[in-house]
Design a protein that fits this description.
The chain is of the alpha+beta class and 143 residues long. The chain is built from four helices and seven strands; from the N terminus they run αβααββββαββ. It has a four-stranded antiparallel beta sheet, with no helix packed on it. Strands 1-2-5 form a three-stranded antiparallel beta sheet. A hairpin with a 2-residue loop joins strand 6 and strand 7. The protein is flat, with a radius of gyration of 19 Å. 13% of the residues are buried.
Length: 143
């Protein structure tokens, strides 16, 4: 039993993983367990429709500086061509946040088209995660 616990601890520690792990998921009525087991659920009549971006971070102990101001900067581009930046201050060396675009906000913006996540320490880039279709915007008015 003791060796299983040690193996489990080694597998769940964040020393061998990437610092950032990002997942994008669509939310619909099909995400409700009550749909499959046919139990009463008020959310079946009014389901949450939208998109959820889950950002997980894990900074190694030897890299984590408690005196540093850590933050996640999420840059979003919607299908309606709107852009948004959301900042999440971090107070622990590991954890996760969920950013949801749901309901009327999801439908009016057409959903998230692409996004980028920056892990910052006192404003300096530590790690970056880009959606596969992310690219920097070229400002043609400057030229």
């Amino acid at each position: 039993m003791k060796k299983y616990f040690i193996v489990l601890m080694l597998l769940t520690s964040c020393t061998h993983r990437k610092t950032l792990n990002v997942q994008n998921a669509y939310l619909s009525q099909q995400d409700l367990a009550s749909v499959y087991v046919n139990t009463p659920d008020h959310r079946r009549e009014h389901p949450v429709i939208g998109q959820q971006i889950t950002i997980e971070w894990c900074v190694e102990k030897n890299e984590y500086d408690e005196n540093c101001c850590w933050e996640l900067l999420l840059q979003l581009r919607y299908r309606s061509r709107e852009s948004e930046k959301v900042s999440y201050p971090l107070y622990k060396r590991k954890g996760f946040v969920e950013h949801k675009t749901v309901g009327d906000d999801f439908f009016s913006k057409g959903g998230v088209q692409t996004f980028k996540v920056d892990l910052l320490c006192d404003g300096s880039l530590v790690e970056e995660w880009r959606h596969q279709t992310w690219s920097e915007v070229i400002d043609i008015e400057r030229f």
